[in-house]
Specification:
By secondary structure, the protein is an alpha+beta fold. The chain has three domains: 8-197, Histidine kinase-like ATPase, C-terminal domain (Heat Shock Protein 90, 2-Layer Sandwich), CATH 3.30.565.10; 204-330, 2-Layer Sandwich (Ribosomal Protein S5, domain 2); 379-602, MutL, C-terminal domain, dimerisation subdomain (formyl-coa transferase, domain 3, 2-Layer Sandwich), CATH 3.30.1540.20. The strands form six sheets. Strands 1, 2, 3, 4, 5, 6, 7, 8 and 9 form a nine-stranded mixed sheet that branches. A five-stranded mixed sheet has the order 10-11-16-13-14, with helices on both faces. A four-stranded antiparallel sheet has the order 19-20-21-25. A hairpin with a 6-residue loop joins β3 and β4 (119-125).
Length: 602
């Protein structure tokens, strides 16, 4: 078959297959054009999930009659000053969006430039342009797209339901609105109630306001500001405290020079930064904004401009990790309990009417022997909260003398008052009380000490007079012995002791007396998930976390008052003490004002 030149209509439809994947792609391209035109407000309306109609109105610069005639031609753009594709300072630059949309849909554009006496209008249907005619419009540009893919009906069968397509449009607008908090956005349509995000003030405060409007009030209350800069690359934004997580990484947003992009770079960097705070199956919510010289990033690697390529990807990743780690360390004692009201919710009294025959003898506060009413009692607290009190005899050490606290109540974690269930320490501060999970707290302390010792001069070891022989299956023995050098860095010295056993000769001094068999089994379990691509540093930290769990104070151990206070003081001096290594909070806090609300004093 001979080579021939394809007709322009076919070329446009092939290009549309790359640029216009679904209605959300149309919305993205048109809203980006509005942003590039200097708009302060964008109104988006859709019908039928964008399949029947898409309307975009802005108050930007608009176009002259001559510009409008060229705008719907292929590869015609006003966004490149020269032919240098490494100097991209706008969201659009290919000049493919409008002709591609016009090739597969009915496209109408009405626009007015400040230098024109009135607006101009142009229609494109299936690639065929109409004449430009005068129109009425105060300012900016209005674009109408209807009957999407009518010219290529085979594409319609690949679209999802109207609701699904409408949700994809909403996600596109959300990302663009997060990138530009200085612009007001309104999204409306038959599939949804109108939503408006008002323009925010410049700076970090305005950015957080917009992020909170889109990601929710829980993100705003848990947000930690992060920032790092090196060699002309700036990473800034907000990351949620470890108490706010998701089951997947869809809550992680990256913006490069104001462009929303999806990049595996952020997923790996965020996972590394949060590795000491979260369980393996949970993901944090972050919104990061990277600003750098346009010549250091290539935005021309994807037809829809949803991906970028960094010239120095290692530097960007390192900055993201550094910014997140620094911010998390700065807010290391923030927990779920003192950031989202979870404690108050658990103790909230239930509204329950009294039985008609109620008398004081039926009160839960009355002596047990005086209760005679046999009806179904309505608990004074929500069921889960009430159940916590049905534990039989108290396990708190009520003999704990209210020790002279001195200035301890002024410390962040207060003065220890008692221990309950041999697991939780109750401490009093000047304006509330704190409940500490002794095992989780000490686990974090031991972990941070192991990390510090490793960086400083290595972990101190204790030699076992009689080596501890641990019997394991042969595969597990091979895994452990193959990692013996890495384990030795943490003071755990092992060697093979026959085909199905390991001899433990030295253990880390920080762990004290430990169950070597349980420790080795846990280490082997974690090592099974490693691969050679996992950096040595991460593998060592996995070892440290496992050792810290085995070397910390266990639940069920009775602590003396001085031990409790010593643990609280160590927590105050330990980085990241708000969570244990597995992402659980180490303590919860109730302010005195909150307690008074529970009892109706406020």
């Amino acid at each position: 078959m001979p080579v021939r030149q394809l007709p322009e209509t076919i070329v446009n439809r092939i290009a549309a297959g790359e640029v216009v994947e679904r209605p959300a792609s149309v919305v993205k391209e048109l809203v980006e054009n509005a942003i590039d035109a200097g708009t302060s407000r964008v109104d988006i309306f859709t019908d039928g999930g964008g399949r029947r109609r898409i309307g975009i109105t802005d108050d930007g610069d608009g176009m002259t009659k001559a510009d409008l005639a060229l705008a719907v031609d292929r590869h015609a753009t006003s966004k490149l000053d020269d032919e240098d594709l490494l100097q991209i300072r706008t969201l659009g630059f290919r000049g493919e969006a409008l002709p591609s949309i016009g090739a597969v849909a009915r496209l109408g554009i009405t626009t007015r430039h400040a230098g024109e006496p009135h607006a101009w209008s142009l229609n494109v249907e299936g690639g065929a342009k109409s004449a430009i005619v005068p129109a009425a419009l105060t300012q900016g540009t209005r674009v109408e797209v209807s009957d999407l893919f009518y010219a290529t009906p085979a594409r319609l069968k690949f679209l999802k339901t109207d609701r699904t397509e409408a949700e994809a449009i909403r996600e596109v607008v959300r990302r663009l609105a997060m990138a530009r908090p200085d612009i007001a956005f309104t999204l409306a349509g038959e599939e949804r109630a109108p939503v408006t995000w008002a323009a925010a003030l410049p700076g970090a405060a305005g950015r957080l306001t917009r992020l909170g409007d889109i990601l929710g009030a829980d993100f705003r209350s848990n947000a930690i500001e992060v920032r790092a800069e090196r060699e002309g690359v700036v990473v800034e934004g907000f990351a949620a405290a470890p108490s706010l997580t998701r089951a997947n990484a869809l809550g992680q947003y990256l913006f490069v020079n104001g462009r929303p992009v999806r990049d595996k770079l952020i997923v790996g960097a965020v996972r590394a930064a949060y590795s000491d705070y979260l369980p393996r199956d949970r993901h944090p919510v972050v919104a990061l904004f990277v600003t750098l010289d346009p010549q250091e990033v290539d935005a021309n690697v994807h037809p829809a401009k949803t991906e970028v390529r960094f010239r120095n990807a290692g530097l960007v990743r390192a900055l993201i990790v550094h910014a997140l780690k620094e911010g998390l360390a700065r807010e290391g004692r923030r927990t779920a309990a003192n950031s989202d009201g979870a404690v108050l919710t658990a103790f909230r009294p239930a509204v329950a009417p009294r039985p008609a025959n109620w008398d004081w003898r039926q009160s839960p506060a009355s002596p047990v022997g005086t209760r005679s009413w046999s009806g179904t009692a309505t608990p004074a607290f929500a069921e889960p909260g009430q159940a916590a009190f049905d534990v039989g005899a108290p396990t708190a050490d009520v003999r704990f003398e209210v020790a002279p606290a001195g200035d301890l109540e002024d410390r962040p974690l207060g003065a220890a008052r008692t221990q309950i269930h041999e697991t939780y320490i109750v401490a009093q501060t000047r304006d509330g009380l704190i409940v500490v999970d002794q095992h989780a707290a000490h686990e974090r302390i031991v972990y941070e000490k192991l990390k510090a010792a490793l960086e400083r001069d290595g972990v101190q070891r204790q030699l076992l007079l009689i080596p501890d022989i641990v019997e394991l299956d042969e595969a597990t023995v091979e895994k452990l012995v193959s990692r013996a050098t890495e384990l030795e860095k943490f003071g755990l010295v092992i060697e093979s002791f026959g085909p199905g056993a390991v001899a433990v000769r030295e253990t880390p001094s920080l762990l004290g007396k430990t169950n070597a068999a349980a420790l080795l089994r846990d280490l082997a379990e974690h090592m099974a998930e490693w691969d050679e691509a996992l950096p040595l540093e991460r593998r060592l930290l996995h070892v440290a976390a496992t050792m810290a769990c085995h070397g910390s104070v266990r639940a069920g151990r009775i602590l003396k008052p001085e031990e409790m206070n010593a643990l609280l003081r160590e927590m105050e001096d330990t980085p990241n003490s708000g969570q244990c290594n597995h992402g659980r909070p180490t303590y919860v806090e109730l302010k005195l004002a909150d307690i008074e609300k529970l009892f109706g004093r406020r």
